[in-house]
Write a structure and sequence with these properties.
Length: 367
């Protein structure tokens, strides 16, 4: 079989060119990554595209989880402060049940209850780091005073209809198909929703009880009537006539004026009974109000626990996704180094072999 000189050199050049290309590719992959263009492996390239998209989504979900943690922690702090103030209201109500308190003591309690009421309203209108009201409502505040000074939830109108649904609106997406509620329905915490205790009305009623009179007010009796004028002196009769008439009849005594309150005596026993009943009612409602706070904190804590689970799952999926990406894109440096050295050895051997064969000719033999 005869091989032309041109064919021999063309084949040798092609072989060395392929080996050089392999060496360049190995060197590039060792310094960058295994898959640089789609033409290298279209299927792997598409898989990498999906992995990169999932990575971007995971970063956004992780940021949302971090934000949600902060919002839920802020809500729990607000609920804890509300609980502390209700404990103080209970202490005052228990103290008010003491029959030894005087009017000054009850006035002092009423003043502190007013301050606690304003403090609770401020907590009810707490805003989160985004500027949103933690306890919902409509507009800038969750609770506002009406024309009579009563504190009402703004998320419910005068007919009792709900204007904003916290369960469906105050949510943050933390996964492909999962969301978490970060807001709290203030009407279920402070009252306003059906079947709940109105915390603000409870304090108003307790404050009104402190202002109830428990002793009879000072009264003034009626004045005594003035006696009538004395009768006149009879005139003297004429000569031989009959003596004059007797003196006139004394005047009738005057009628004294009467204080209207004096007609209905103050019933101190009834007043104290009404006062005790108001205190007992307030203490009973406080049990319900504190249960509302406890329930809200428990639900808030459950959502925080769910965030930890979601975060852990996100991290686990991220590790699996990184392993898949690494298998498609990253270079195994030890293996690639061996392959590089092997190809380099083959190239050197090929070059040496071609050089020897190129010198095999009749002219060289005749020498």
């Amino acid at each position: 079989m005869q091989i032309s000189t041109a064919s021999f050199y063309n084949r040798s050049a092609a072989q060395m060119s392929r080996l050089n290309a392999d060496l360049n590719r190995y060197q590039t992959e060792m310094t960058t990554k295994k898959l640089n263009v789609a033409s290298q492996d279209s299927t792997a390239w598409m898989m990498l595209g999906g992995i990169k998209k999932d990575d971007a989504d995971a970063k956004a979900f992780s940021a949302n989880i971090t934000l949600s943690r902060g919002l839920l922690a802020q809500a729990d702090t607000a609920l804890g402060n509300v609980d502390d103030r209700l404990v103080r209201v209970r202490e005052l109500a228990t103290r008010a049940a003491n029959e030894t308190l005087n009017d000054k003591d009850r006035t002092s309690i009423a003043t502190e209850l007013g301050q606690l009421r304003e403090g609770l309203m401020a907590l009810a209108n707490t805003r989160d780091v985004r500027g949103h009201a933690i306890f919902g409502g409509v507009g800038d505040v969750a609770f506002a005073k009406d024309a009579d000074g009563a504190i009402k939830y703004t998320g419910i109108d005068a007919t009792g209809a709900t204007l904003v649904d916290i369960d469906s609106t105050a949510r943050i997406r933390i996964g492909d198909a999962s969301e978490i509620q970060v807001g709290i329905d203030g009407s279920r915490v402070f009252g306003g929703a059906a079947g709940t205790t109105d915390v603000f009305k409870l304090i108003d009623d307790l404050k009104a009880a402190m202002e109830m009179p428990l002793t009879a007010p000072a009264t003034t009796g009626g004045t005594t009537g003035t006696g009538g004028t004395t009768g006149g002196t009879g005139t003297t009769g004429g000569t031989g006539g009959t003596g004059g008439t007797t003196g006139g009849t004394g005047g009738t005594g005057g009628t004294g004026t009467t204080d209207p309150t004096a007609t209905t005596p103050f019933d101190a026993e009834a007043a104290r009974s009404k006062y005790a009943l108001a205190i007992k009612s307030a203490l009973g409602k406080l049990d319900s109000a504190e249960a509302q706070i406890t329930s809200a904190r428990a639900a808030n804590g459950a959502r925080a626990a769910r965030l930890e689970i979601e975060s852990s799952q996100l991290e686990s999926v991220g590790i699996d996704r990184e392993e898949a990406r690494s298998s498609l894109e990253d270079v195994d440096i030890p293996t690639m180094t061996v392959q590089f050295q092997k190809t380099l050895t083959i190239l050197n051997a090929t070059q040496a072999t071609i050089s020897k064969l190129a010198n095999l000719s009749l002219f060289n033999y005749l020498k």
